[in-house]
Amino acid sequence: MLCRRLDLFAEALVAIDGSKFKAVNNRDRNFTPAKMQRRLEQIDQSIARYLGQLDRADDEEPVAAATSERLNDKIAALREELAQLKVLV
Asked: For the range 42-47, what are the long-range contacts, defined as Cβ-Cβ under 8 Å and sequence gap of 24 or more?
């Protein structure tokens, strides 16, 4: 009000708001048909790659037991994500 009384404003008035809000639309919640298709393909490729690694681990020494368990966990997680994404499609 003081600036108006002192005639410091021109005819146009511009206000700037510096508010910041946390975004809710992160990449894990933002799905487009193209993103869904690309992610489904990535999951399929990853599962195939892990299955190939499991096949190679079967031919190796007992050290491969820990590796195969880790790969099976990764495959299970990817299959779970795949099932969740297919629900959204």
From this structure: 43/78, 43/81, 43/82, 43/85, 44/82, 46/74, 46/78, 47/75, 47/78, 47/79, 47/82
Q: For residues 28 and 88, what is the distance between their CA atoms, to the nearest angstrom?
A: 13
| CA–CA distance, 38 with 28 (Å, rounded to integer) | 14
Q: How many CB atoms lie within 10 A of CB 51?
A: 13
pLDDT in tens, 19-28: 887 777 766 6
Give the predicted TM-score (pTM) of the model. Answer: 0.57
- In angstroms, the first-to-last Cα distance of the chain is 55
The Cα–Cα gap between 5 and 64 comes to 81
The mean pLDDT value of the chain amounts to 81
